[in-house]
Target: AAA+ ATPase domain-containing protein
Amino acid sequence: MDDGFVRRVFEEGGRDYFQQPSTSSSSSSSSILQSLPLHVSFDYGYYLLVKSVQELREKKEGLVTVGIGGPSGSGKTSLAEKVASVIGCPVLSMENYRVGTDDGNDPDSIDFDLLVNNLQDLINGKDASTPLFDFQEKKRTFSKILYASSGVVIVDGTYALHAKLRSLLDIRVAVVGGVHFNLLSKVKHDIGDSCSLDYLIDSIFPLFRKHIEPDIHHAQIRINNNFVSSFREAIYKLKCKSESAIGQSAHVFHEKETQSDNFIEMYLRPPSASEEARINDWIKVRQSGIRYYLALGDQRIVDKNFIIRPKAEFEVGRMTLGGLLALGYTVVVSYKRASQSVRIDNLSVSLETIDTLGETFMVLRGTDRKVVGAEAVRMSITGPWITKSYLELILERRGVPRLNTPPLLPSTPVSTDREKTILAPRPIRISENIVTELEDLSQPWTRSPTKSKMEPVLATWQFISSDHTPADTLITAAESSSSRNIMQLAPIPESCDLDRGLLLSVQAIQALLENKGVPVIVGIGGPSGSGKTSLAHKMANIVGCEVVSLENYYKPEQVKDFKYDDFGALDLVLLSKNIKDVKNRQKTNIPIFDLETGTRSGFKELEVSEDCGVVIFEGVYALHPQIRASLDLWIAVVGGVHSHLISRVQRDKNRVGCSMSQNEIMMAVFPMFQQYIEPHLVHAHLKIRNDFDPVLSPESSLFVLKSNKQVSYQDILRVLDPAKFCSSVQNFIDIYLRLRGITSNGPLCESDCIRVRVCEGRFAVLIREPIREGNFIIQPKVDFDISISTVAGLLNLGYQAVAYIEASAFIYQDGKLLIEVDHLQDVPSPYLQIKGLNKEAVEAAGSSLKLDGSYTTKSYLQIVLERLPDAERSSSGVHARQAAKLQELVEFVQAQGSSSASESSHSRETSPLDGIIEDLQARIKRLERWHIINTVLWTFLMSALVGYSLYQRRRQ
Model:
């Protein structure tokens, strides 16, 4: 990503830092950044803020102060936490500066004098004693020391951009949208057009237009957060009556530290709604002390014994509840919930007493379905499990029937002509997510609901009858149960985003299980890098089923010719047999394909049972006519990294003054897509556009520490969990492609290149445009496989191979940390990388390995180029010894990639690429042997130590 936009915000406006003499204090009357009349996405805003903090920190002395303001539920706290995790700085929450128990959304309830004094002390280099507010005690009970040496401090709060604070802030950020906009959309949907948007805002958020919105317009970085409640990070719950686990609960709560909470939960029915209105349309408000939390309806999925909920609550002021009641919402159910909970690793166990029911329930909660289920087994709790909400239990006790069941199917079948009118989803045709001018918006960006109407929580799935079975099915009509061909899902014409698509996918599976029974076979198709594999595994985590990748059905003879994107590379005979066995509920053997060796390495048994009657097949050709006719649910996914690569090529073309359409680029880079993949996506029951940005998004970023200090294998083993330890060896070649005409100021820069990795004969694009902060490299966790024709397409568009790196890597991991030891060609000492999602865990591992003081944030390309003699160093990155070998690679890719499927491809033995790979393999075999010997010896030593320890314990 080029940093031109970040540089623009420093050029003019406000206080011109570059023309005024520097001062020791940043408490000038205005900020160093100019105020931009633009707004950006949440991901782009996160990236801009981190880059702006880094650049400002280099250009000024003293503390850098950041204010992040906006309405409740907009996402400002999430942004502050993500940026703080990268920068490593403290966050001053304005919640801790409350005065008494007044509504926190009222500016009079904030102690601005103390906050200003704390900020001024920090700016002047003094440590500050900051308050901590106890919401249970409803007063300040503690304080903590904030050290001025932190370098950066973030102020997070509704009034973080207030006039009393603005002169102390170097960077001002406003965040709007999120669930704040979702509530406006929901109320507008419930009320209709009888009230204007301004009237609704003044009713629900009475302080917004008067006290909050004017401050937001003083921000330099303005973020419009389009977040909706998401099942991507769902919470999994198991619930039973406490009597079912009374022994275990007493044991658990006796050993652990217990946290007690008391809540009042209220459900508000929309105005003019009948008593039979679905509870999914109700608004839930939870009062905890002086805080109020709101959730839009009973958004949840029930799958077997599990209750699955999105993280959908957000804090609102007390006046918001009063505003909803004034608009006609009525409290139909209210009850008290007393909770005692303990933490066990990554989940919590709670005893919850509901006063209206007069009963106590045990609830296990966690973000991983398998972990929650395993804990229940460990505690010997077998149920009976309760999947109804407390609201449903209360309504049933009152004699009101269960209200959130799906609506009855229409008696008149939907016309089968509906499928013919569906258009293929084309998010790859959508322009890049760039900043938008305010005048292009129909409403001010600070208060415009992001949707014209509230999307229903319940699925809109309907069934159509089918009197015939398509002729191109893999399994004949005689082989299939006739009852399963009577009902089929009616496709949803409109495409949807990934969050909505995930919810609809799970609801479609549940509808099929209820109406057609077991088994349900799902197919998820789309181009490589679109996100279909991620979606499949998220669905499987929710439903608790198996995912089968079509890559396991590759024919070894086809893979040897690098035809991964060819439909003919799939073993359709075996796939047909496996699907037939699944349909007949018989055990079947699914192949396992080893992509490193290009051969089938074995089989694993798959059986569909009543307990888990779902199987998901995912792959590029999962919706091909010869496959999809045998499946129950067809899901198409487009966008993601696939779209990112097309946008990247288009951006590079624009930089050299050559304009190309996305269609032209796609036909060159993904020649198989429009002809063989896209036509099948139009028939999907559900079409999902994945807007994920692999460069800007902070989601699942990896924290990386890199060092060339020598570390022994035994030391690495001591850092990782031996119970979950596994290791592997890889050898790879990284090729750097740069578009002809793009010039670099100085040495070759990674940001000007597209990096293609060749690993065991397989090609992948590595998306690595990291943020470097201190010793850490924070990089996106995104790679995706491409075919050799994609690499050839890039070369045909004018990209040149300007550098390459050969390396071999030993990889050790335990599920939380990954330690990689890379041996680079022509670099004498190996480099060690510690990678993980948790920054503290990565840092602790580095300290355990005694790497402090030896870290580098340089890329391997920089390291290799710096080792070149001055006479051989050039901006191209290629020296004489590399040129010939790199040219061989390019010629092979062009010849192999441009050949048609009908032409005979070069043999594996004579290809230049394989010669390089075999050369690497020969070198790595020696390292592998040493690795195996070390593993055996170390295992023997550890076994001896454990045995001796057990012997000593028995003696004692």
The two ends are 63 Å apart (CA to CA). The chain has four domains: 2-7+34-225, 235-398, 488-689, 694-898. The longest strand covers residues 330-344.
